[in-house]
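Bit of a strange request maybe. I'm writing a small parser for structure token strings and I need a real example to test against, not something I typed by hand. Could someone generate the tokens for this chain?
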Amino acid sequence: MLAFVAAVLFAIAFILHVTETSTDLVFAPTSLMFLGLAFLALHVGGVGTGWAARGRGRSRRR
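Reply from user aminoacidic:
Good idea to test on real output. This should exercise your parser:
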């Protein structure tokens, strides 16, 4: 999910850069690129994946 957010941010930054749209400092293409990289790093790091590292615990054998 975070990779999709990063892809959308990269697409918006690319469109702003190509069209040379004048925006506020917060929505500058470089700022959006850094946000996209942060979301991509979180995705690669495993944040928000829904998987949890769990031990095996006890198992019953019959």
